[in-house]
Amino acid sequence: xxxxxxxxxxxxxxxxxxxxxxxxxxxxxxxxxxxxxxxxxxxxxxxxxxxxxxxxxxxxxxxxxxxxxxxxxxxxxxxxxxxxxxxxxxxxxxxxxxxxxxxxxxxxxxxxxxxxxxxxxxxxxxxxxxxxxxxxxxxxxxx
Length: 143
Fold this sequence. Notes:
Elements: H1 2-27, H2 31-34, E1 37-41, H3 50-53, E2 57-61, E3 70-75, E4 81-90, E5 95-104, E6 116-117, E7 121-122, E8 126-132, E9 135-141
Antiparallel strand pairs: 1-2, 1-9, 2-3, 3-4, 4-5, 5-6, 7-8, 8-9
């Protein structure tokens, strides 16, 4: 009887580890994959200045440019834009999104050739940026 109990316990442990592995493997994407796609500003959350201080739409593409880097485009409500390549820099407990603008509309021409260190936080279905203490601007995935 005791041997049967130990076998059942061992099978339960194996099953539990398999469930944990499947949930961990399927439930969370990598930051590289989470940032891919198109994100639009959610005007119902965050601060009132989110639309003024950030893009209306963010697009991140995994098709590398000619230089081999991943490309992005930010479109603003006033018709302005900037685009270029981006990279993810990993720290001990966070990931920073660096933007390298290469093209822009007239309004953002001074950004071309610079490196923008952002405080965007990439999640599975949204990108967030602190805007006022506890509030965050949120861009939600649309594709």
